[in-house]
Each structure stands twice: as structure tokens, then as C-alpha cells.
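Work Package 4 report. The design task specified in the project plan requires that, given a folded chain encoded as C-alpha cells, an amino acid be chosen for each position. We show below one input record used in the internal validation round.
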């Protein structure tokens, strides 16, 4: 808003999928069934994904920040509009990371500078964020991403 000196300059692309904890580390947010404990990502508040459970209340919980690389690929073609894409297009890797405790596989972009040739199944991956694009108001929109764990 005009005159608002505290206007955010960085915002998530999608609200409610990830957040920073007190130490500034980013974690994903999942829905967890209060009845059977099944996790679901992206998070939702009802409709347990477990076909054997009729639970209809899911709490929002943080997910582990590290997981194991389960699969990956490299995108060499710019996505069609309306998906934002840098010009010129730069290839990027996409990783599917398995979170053992939660029983989830989370698909996400891999940070700039890491391509498929740098990845190996079974590697430990860590969650981070990266800018995706800058919107019309000059706000940098960020998304979650995977990087090779240090
Ligand atoms: Zn359930």
C-alpha cells in the first residue's frame, strides 16, 4: 500500500506451504491427520489422504528440513505462459526428496547452479528458498527449493 514503510519485499509464491522458524530456517508445512497421523503435502485442513481412515481433521505441522534424494530430472525447456520463467531460460533440476519419518516424497525445484549431473540418488538434500520472479509491485516472490545438504 502507498505510504506503508514496512511493505514486504519478499513473499511466498503460495501462502501456507512453507514458513521460517525462529532461527530463520525454512520448513515445509504439511497437514497431519489427528486420527491416524498420516501426513499430506501440500497441506490441507480436512479429508485424510489415508483410504483406510475417515479422519476429517488435519493439523498443520512443520516437516523435516532434510530428506533423501529419491528421484530427479532436469528441465531444459521453458514452461509455457502463464508460468513465470526467466528470459533467457536456464535449465534447472527438479528433485523428489523422500522424508522417511513422514512417509512423504516432496517434489521441488533445485537451487540455481545445481543440475542433474551434480545429483545422485540417495544424497541428503536440505530445504531452502529461492526467488522465482519479481511481481508487478516489485515484490520478490520466493518458493521453496532443494539444495544438496552441506
Ligand atoms: Zn487419517
Amino acid at each position: 500500500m502507498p505510504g506503508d514503510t514496512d511493505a514486504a519485499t519478499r513473499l511466498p509464491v503460495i501462502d501456507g506451504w512453507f514458513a521460517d522458524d525462529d532461527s530463520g530456517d525454512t520448513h515445509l508445512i504439511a497437514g497431519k491427520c489427528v486420527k491416524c497421523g498420516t501426513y499430506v503435502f501440500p497441506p490441507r485442513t480436512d479429508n485424510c489422504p489415508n483410504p483406510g481412515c475417515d479422519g476429517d481433521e488435519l493439523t498443520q505441522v512443520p516437516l523435516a528440513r532434510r530428506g533423501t534424494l529419491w528421484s530427479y530430472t532436469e528441465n531444459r525447456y521453458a514452461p509455457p505462459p502463464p508460468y513465470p520463467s526467466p528470459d533467457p531460460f536456464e535449465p534447472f533440476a527438479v528433485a523428489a526428496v523422500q522424508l522417511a519419518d513422514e512417509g512423504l516424497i516432496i517434489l521441488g525445484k533445485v537451487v540455481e547452479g545445481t543440475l542433474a549431473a551434480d545429483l545422485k540418488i540417495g544424497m541428503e538434500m536440505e530445504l531452502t528458498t529461492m526467488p522465482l520472479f519479481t511481481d508487478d509491485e516489485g515484490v520478490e516472490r520466493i518458493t521453496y527449493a532443494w539444495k544438496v545438504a552441506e
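The longest strand covers residues 124-134. Validation will be extended to a larger panel in the next phase.
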